């Protein structure tokens, strides 16, 4: 999640050349490993799942140490923030010089698959990690285009929910919302600019967050971002109206602080919520750890599904969110990398990491450990299983996130200065984004 990037398909030929050159002297592409376990050090790029990069290192250190003790395989860990991860992956695929194993946002699965830079999980590879049947089917589908062999495997499951401050809601005499209209009404009642307190906080400068809500709000309107042939349909009325509805939380409804137009990651809005500067946030279930780390007690907040308008065409509350784990095709340590993937997706490690990372289980029979709150567990599990749809499983999905998300960043910035953002403005920037898709 970064600056100028996402042109994975355009880099396909360059990646192929790079991979071919690095394949010389590497046995990985043909199913072997150049070293034995005890003399192998895997390089692992982990995504930022905890409260900070340092926190991730603390969480993962004992897990990786246990893997080394069990197998003899050492792991060199680097945790990379979301604003840099996709650029780093792009560079690694282009050059053929990168990690052995890496985490990816599962929405990037098809885009990265199309580059040819990631190892396919065929029958032998699937067998090495315990088989495909143990994974939640919808989660596994994010690893590649329909009818193809996946190039990434589910690692952490996530879904969006609407977090609310119980005490603030009680003091204002409002109930947790079940519709968009109720959410806005509650937000207005809870907003007091004189105290710098707002009904909601958004990561309005995060293009990834904005792209996700472009998808969700459009889906609530019954609109799709791509047609059946894979062509973008960003300028359809359902998409335009959905994006404007989201921008209006700041512009028209005024339940979001205009300073949120500078919030370029979800941690900032989560912190505002934990510090009682906002009564609501829309976040994935991994927000729990950050909320608590920022000083809020677990019992002080509740969660309900992100609500759709009363007249919504679909009751969509999230995309099928999460993190996948992949192996670089250029690795010299394929056998060891597969052992690591098998380990990281094992039931015991899933349970161990589920709590600090507030992750939903990606295994069919996995035990959820991300919270002891039965109500919260039910909300997120129900959303993940019944109210979520996958982001478009097309090779240029990554370009959608980048182009539309950044366009929305600019719309929020414009609204924050007091300039009016109307349907025509939204349609114009979405047309530009649509025309950029290749």
UniProtKB/TrEMBL annotation:
Q: Which residues form a coiled coil?
A: none
Per its UniProt record, what PROSITE patterns does this chain match?
Answer: PROKAR_LIPOPROTEIN, TAT
Protein keywords: Signal
Q: Which residues form the signal peptide?
A: 1-20
| Family annotation (InterPro entries) | Bact_solute-bd_prot1 (IPR050490), SBP (IPR006059), TAT_signal (IPR006311)
- Report what the protein is called: Multiple sugar-binding protein
| Lineage of the organism | Bacteria, Bacillati, Actinomycetota, Actinomycetes, Propionibacteriales
- Name the gene behind this protein: msmE_3
